[in-house]
Design brief:
Keywords: Kinase, Transferase, Two-component regulatory system
Number of strands: 16
Number of helices: 14
Largest sheet: 5 strands, antiparallel
Low-confidence stretches: 442-448
GO molecular function: protein histidine kinase activity
Mean pLDDT: 79
Shape: rod-shaped
Number of domains: 3
Strand content: 15-25%
Distance between the termini: 9 Å
Structural class: alpha+beta
Pfam families: cNMP_binding, HATPase_c
Protein name: histidine kinase
EC number: 2.7.13.3
Helix content: 40-55%
């Protein structure tokens, strides 16, 4: 995708236009000595920019330090596809540009943090980033040490805490995955043990039938009946627990009347398989032998229970497989970092991974627009965003409420809304929720980096936008992702 970029057309810088006395009238330089002012005047220059002209662009290398002498300027930041104006001023002496040029080279390139445009004809005093950095380090060494410690310390702390938060999230997700895996694994183990017992009982019952005085044609009919009953059970309609209990009573009474041994142990197996008294009557008619009926009922019961146990094992192992697939989808360990994705797959896998945290008290409502096109993204990073937003929503509701995840299209962007029915976010806090280290959680329960990380992933990495809408009982985080590759991709 080709994006036209506006050129920066600055007029040539004119050296020597400002004297030391002129510079002393600017609040930034008013406390400097005459010698220092003379050095700055000799190394700086003045530059004029016509109204509407672009002075510097966010993300470009920070090569110059600007001080406003006259005119009106506006600073803006890029948020998704929009430019958001952050400030507007005509105050003489305000500065911008390479304001961090004094920091020692730590491998992080210095870039302009905002875009500056002249709203009217403007004039600036300009120093190169190299000269500004040198004067700061030479003239104010103690202040530079303090500023470097503050800036680099904050950067290191943010990186360390961010890494710690990722490790904590990974630990929590791993514990949750183990918890989710334990249930189906235990169910499969129980069903396997029970299946072994039923197969052994079937072998014994088959031996008794073979030793008994059962005509070959009757034995063949019995085997045919077994297959017919199993097929009938597979096609039986789903019953409620109350209906199954009533069916158990009917089957138990029917078996008691015909002196079937251990009828109340066998009846639940037939009821669970959806076999009714009509079917048992048909079995009795086909066998036409009261002596063979008892053994046939137990033989068929073992076969039914075996099928049910195998279905339980299939369901349990299928659940394990689904969880493993969800974990792979969540982490994307077997896929490239950047790709075109369906956002619903990441949302679903995140819900599975957070199932233990969501709990039974939270109702999950998914309102997906399945017709949405794919978006270019780093899926593992987006899943981190979904994790942070869903986790925050569940905590806001204290484990009880409705979590609503909605996907829609808005012009050339896909919108993912994650909403909760918690108490809401106060107005005075809304504008700070994306600030690093800001948190309303008690000490030890939040780092204040979850939403900051989410913001940087959505806005900086994906060229999207994330915003908050909140009222008591209806809080929504809206993530907007572009349908096309960002210009820098």
């Amino acid at each position: 995708m080709t994006v036209e970029t506006e050129d920066i057309k600055l007029q040539p810088c004119e050296p020597g236009r400002l004297t030391a006395e002129d510079l002393k009238g600017l609040f930034l330089f008013e406390k400097l000595t005459d010698e220092q002012l003379a050095w700055i005047a000799g190394h700086g220059c003045t530059m004029r920019v016509p109204g509407g002209g672009l002075v510097l662009r966010e993300g470009d290398p920070a090569t110059q330090f600007f001080v406003l002498l006259s005119g009106t300027i506006a600073l803006s930041r890029r948020v998704g596809q929009d430019d958001v104006q952050t400030s507007r001023t005509e105050q003489r002496g305000v500065y911008m540009g390479a304001t961090n040029a004094y920091l020692r080279d730590d491998g992080v390139p210095q870039k302009y943090m905002a875009t500056m445009r002249a709203l009217s004809d403007a004039e600036f005093f300009v120093l190169s980033a190299e000269d500004f950095g040198r004067l700061m380090r030479d003239w104010f060494p103690m202040a530079i040490h303090l500023l470097e410690g503050l800036t680099l310390g904050m950067r290191s702390s943010q990186a360390a805490i961010g890494e710690r938060q990722r490790l904590q999230a990974l630990g929590a997700l791993s514990a949750g995955l183990m918890h989710e895996l334990n249930n189906p694994a235990a169910a499969a183990a129980r069903a396997t043990g029970a299946l072994r017992e039923r197969v052994a009982a079937m072998r014994m019952k088959l031996g008794k039938l073979a030793k008994g005085k059962v005509a070959p044609d009757r034995l063949t009919a019995l085997l045919d009946l077994q297959e017919e009953v199993i097929e009938r059970a597979a096609k039986a309609p789903v019953r409620t627990a109350m209906q199954i209990a009533d069916l158990e009573d009917e089957l138990g009474d029917w078996m008691d009347e015909r002196r079937v041994t251990n009828a109340w142990d066998v009846a639940p197996v037939f009821a669970q398989g959806g076999i009714d008294t009509e079917c048992l009557t048909q079995i009795q008619a086909r066998l036409d032998s009261p002596e063979l009926l008892d053994q046939a009922i137990h033989w068929i019961g073992y076969a039914l229970e075996t099928e049910q146990l195998m279905s339980d094992i299939e369901d349990a192992t299928g659940r394990v497989s689904s969880l493993v697939n969800a974990a792979k989808q969540y982490s994307h360990v077997d896929r490239s970092a950047h790709q075109w994705i369906d956002v619903h797959a990441g949302l679903d896998s995140t819900l599975v991974m957070l199932g233990h945290k969501i709990g039974d008290g939270v109702q999950v409502v998914k309102e997906y627009d399945r017709s949405l096109p794919q978006v270019p993204a780093h899926p593992a990073e987006l899943n981190q965003v979904w994790t942070n937003l869903i986790d925050n929503a569940v905590q806001a509701m204290s484990g009880a409420g409705t979590l609503t995840i909605r996907t829609t299209r808005e012009d050339d962007r896909v919108v993912v809304s994650i909403g909760d029915t918690g108490p809401g976010v106060p107005d005075e806090i809304k504008k700070r929720v994306f600030e690093p280290f800001f948190t309303t959680k008690p000490v030890g329960q939040g780092t204040g980096l979850g939403l900051d990380i989410s913001y940087r992933i959505v806005v900086n990495t994906h060229g999207g936008d994330i915003s908050l809408q909140s009222a008591p009982g209806d809080t929504r985080f809206l993530v907007r992702l572009p349908l096309s590759e960002p210009a820098s991709a």
